[in-house]
Amino acid sequence: MILGIETSCDETAAALVTADGEIVTTVVASQDELHARFGGVVPEVASRRHLELIVPVIEEALGEAEIDAVAVTSHPGLIGALLVGVSAAKALAWARRLPLVPVNHLHGHVASLYLRPLDLEPPFTCLLASGGHTMLVDVQERGGFRVLGTTLDDAAGEAFDKGARLLGLGYPGGKEIDALAKQGDPAAYDFPVARVPGLDFSFSGLKTALLYKVRDLPAAELEARKADLAASYQHAIVRALVERIEATGAERVAVVGGVAANSELRAALPGAALAPLPLCTDNAAMIASAARYAEPVPYPDYLSLDARPTA
Ligand code: KG4
Ligand code: ZN
């Protein structure tokens, strides 16, 4: 039994997962509302909230369970946020004389596919699209992956969040645009999809195009066309992601990360393995899942283990 802990951004999460990938408990305390009035995650605010939530969230997930290891996201992420999870994980593992497994958050997203009942077996090509990252990776075995392409500027989730802010929608923006787009026409506006060489992505031009559209529309017109703008903007992001997946020529495709929750993207990839909705956005079950294929650090060697912001 593995206890997973995740605090890399604005979700405080803990989960219990068995060695064969069964989720026993999973608790996610979202800080969305706290950050909404700032229109994005404020790192210092996030760390302070993690401090308040980490013990009750772990207690709720752990209950009276006997565990064999503690897994925690050690990188990449907001350093002050990561440190809360890493410190809690060290303390708990040390007190129980258990091994600690440091987990790469991106490996965690891919490992959301290894949980039951999906239990996906490599090889496959995976799109990892979240608020902080957008990459295509080649997965040959559960212990790792090879990066085929990555974003040159914004992440896809960031494009959703920034677009939502331009349209005066709430935070996080992906969910808001997804909902509003259902009432709009995806062909109403022709937003450009950047075509950069190879398998990389670029979303900054798209965001600028939306900025100009919003600026040029009279206020009343903007209000009336908001759903069309959301639908067209989302369509451009989804098209960029799907085109890149198709460019790999891969037969077995999977999609993970917060943007994998997008309804248009899911509908556009009927043959792909999609992370289950509750496991798309940040959670600790995926971290415990990744720990099954990572190197545990034996007690008490991990006391000097550090978090780091970069992958
Ligand atoms: O994986 P995640 O929870 O955190 C990171 O590791 O970054 O991803 C969060 C991102 C946010 O940018 C959010 O707007 C986006 O995922 N997202 C969505 C949807 N739900 C969340 N984007 C598009 N459509 C959605 N339904
Ligand atoms: Zn994430």
What this model shows, in words?
The structure is a single chain. The chain is of the alpha/beta class. The chain is 40% helix and 19% strand. The protein has 2 domains: 2-117 and 281-304, ATPase, nucleotide binding domain (Nucleotidyltransferase, domain 5, 2-Layer Sandwich), CATH 3.30.420.40; 124-274, ATPase, nucleotide binding domain (Nucleotidyltransferase, domain 5, 2-Layer Sandwich), CATH 3.30.420.40. It has 10 helices and 10 strands. The strands form 2 sheets. It has a 5-stranded mixed β-sheet with strand order 3-2-1-4-5, sandwiched between helices. The protein has a 5-stranded mixed β-sheet with strand order 8-7-6-9-10, sandwiched between helices. Helix 5 runs parallel beside helix 7 and helix 6 packs across helix 8. The structure holds 5'-O-[(R)-(carboxyoxy)(hydroxy)phosphoryl]adenosine and zinc ion. 5'-O-[(R)-(carboxyoxy)(hydroxy)phosphoryl]adenosine (KG4) binds next to helix 5 and helix 6.
